[in-house]
Design a protein that fits this description.
heterodimer, A: alpha/beta, B: mainly alpha
Chain lengths: 247, 271
């Protein structure tokens, strides 16, 4: 079964007072296979985060359909096996990382023994074990990002959705995230993520979707990316073509 | 389902109980209660009324500060700073989110009320032991009934906070609406009674305003029914029928607000 199926979704944002319309996503269709690492890249405002939010059920598409393992996003059960990291995550200031992760495990229905094992393992993997009992308000941006990654992965989800996972991380942190994603792939998990760091996307993704101005411009496999002299070259070519067409 | 909801209730409670504003609210109300021990010395008679009044006012004021600063912060911050994503990325429905947050807030208020009740009991007990002669008419039962009625009012007020948080995008607007609702809810009965009085009959008032007030009195909660400070201070008996009626009123009103909040929130876009 396909893990994530998006069929012709569109979303137009309407500003509250002026009723000004802005197309965020237009007629987007894609399918993500189980065990695949799928990247979405695009300029700011291309519609990447909106797409992820629609998959998570935070935003409802104006038209089209989304299925996650056969379930619609409005169904809370569709999120049972999903781990999500939002862009610039912000968590409850007065909680510690351990308490936040305990909540994630309880909400996902994990028993206490498994929860404790998973929490310890992940905190060690992301390098937050020593700071696990510090309140989240004392964390730096990079530490919050690491806590967010733990929050998304602690219940061992089958589908992992990461919005800008490398944001705010130092080179060591970026390497840690890449290792985590590759480890997820080894264990047969599906990963969908957005990023602006094209080298990382090229390195770890099986397929990459390029979005520009609310539209999907193409989905490329690793081989196709190599044929086009790398991700950066391909991305710039597509964006420039799009700009020329717009003119 | 139960364990999941409990996790959200406990998360909300934990986040609220560690809010720095809570320390300020606690210290202020304890100072007010402690101050009542000194203040009663300035009165030459009816010391029990003064001490009961000050202590009940301190509890009510602490409850209001908790509601307008801590509860509101717990709801609005979720929307403002997008902490809601971390909750809704888990298998919670939006209705469960609304009820989980509300019950977490009410659990926090309940614990705060228990602590404040203990402190005010100690304060009154101390004053009573010093001035036994003035406390002949005092009734502990009526005192606790008045605290219970105050607690009920916070069920409604916090349901309004949840409701306004689901329809607005700014915590300031939620605060403004909530304070307005509190003031209107406390005074609406007096306004209606005044308009029905013989003095008001002589006034010239437009029919539109009259009918607006007529509608408003049914839409807004009548919060003055929960204010039993005067009755308790005078040790006037508060019947259990009255307490049952206001409990029923509070539960119905809060439930309607929370159901409406859930319906609205289910349609809200979390951009």
């Amino acid at each position: 079964m396909i893990d994530i199926s998006i069929k012709n979704i569109s979303k137009i944002y309407v500003s509250d007072f002026k009723c000004k319309k802005k197309t965020a996503v237009q007629n987007l269709s894609l399918e993500i296979e189980p065990g695949e690492i799928f990247g979405i890249i695009g300029r700011n405002g291309a519609g990447k985060s909106t797409t992820l939010k629609m998959i998570m059920g935070f935003i409802t598409p104006d038209s089209g359909q989304i299925f996650i393992s056969g379930k619609i996003p409005a169904d809370p059960d569709s999120r049972c096996k999903i781990g999500y990291l939002p862009e610039n995550p912000y968590f409850y200031d007065n909680l510690t990382a351990r308490e936040l992760l305990t909540f994630s495990c309880q909400a996902s229905g994990l028993d206490q023994k498994t929860s404790n094992q998973r929490i310890e393992l992940l905190l060690k993997q992301v390098g937050l074990f020593a700071e696990q009992n510090q309140k989240l308000r004392t964390y730096s941006k990079g530490m919050t990002q690491r806590a967010g990654i733990c929050f998304a992965l602690v219940h061992d989800p089958d589908i992992v959705i990461l919005d800008e996972p490398m944001s705010g991380l130092d080179p060591m942190g970026r390497k840690m995230v890449i290792d985590l994603i590759l480890d997820l792939k080894k264990r047969g998990k599906t990963v969908l993520f957005c990023s602006h760091i094209l080298n990382d996307v090229e390195r770890i993704c099986d397929r990459v979707a390029i979005m520009d101005q609310a539209n999907l411009k193409g989905i490329y496999t690793k081989e196709q990316i190599l044929e086009n002299h790398g991700m950066e070259e391909l991305f710039l070519k597509i964006v420039q073509q799009n700009e020329l067409q717009a003119k | 389902m139960g364990r999941k909801l409990f996790a959200l209730i406990f998360l909300t409670f934990k986040e609220g109980v560690r809010d720095r504003a809570l320390v300020g609210v606690g210290l202020f109300s304890l100072a007010m209660m402690g101050g009542s021990v000194m203040v009663v010395n300035f009165f030459m008679r009816e010391l029990h009324k003064v001490s009961v009044d000050i202590n009940l006012s301190a509890i009510a004021f602490a409850g209001l500060l908790l509601t307008f600063f801590v509860s509101l912060n717990l709801m609005s911050k979720d929307m403002d700073k997008h902490t809601i994503y971390c909750v809704l990325s888990k298998p919670f429905s939006r209705t469960q989110y609304i009820w989980g947050k509300y019950l977490g807030i009410m659990f926090l208020i309940f614990i705060a009320f228990c602590i404040l009740t203990l402190c005010s009991t100690a304060t009154i007990f101390f004053i009573k032991s010093q001035y036994e002669v003035y406390f002949k008419e005092f009734s502990w039962l009526e005192f606790y009934k008045a605290i219970y009625a105050q607690f009920l009012m916070f069920f409604i007020l916090n349901a309004f906070i949840v409701f306004y948080s689901t329809i607005t995008t700014s915590s300031f607007i939620t605060l403004l609406f909530s304070i307005s609702t509190y003031i209107a809810g406390q005074t609406i009965e007096e306004v209606v009674l005044f308009l029905q009085s013989s003095q008001a009959m002589e006034m010239v008032m437009s029919k539109t305003i009259g009918s607006i007030i007529g509608i408003v009195q049914y839409v807004l909660p009548n919060l003055s029914v929960f204010d039993l400070k005067v009755r308790s201070a005078h040790a006037l008996p508060i019947s259990f029928e009255y307490l049952s009626a206001i409990t029923f009123y509070c539960l119905i009103y809060s439930s309607v607000l929370l159901i409406s909040s859930s319906l609205i929130f289910n349609r809200r876009e979390l951009k």
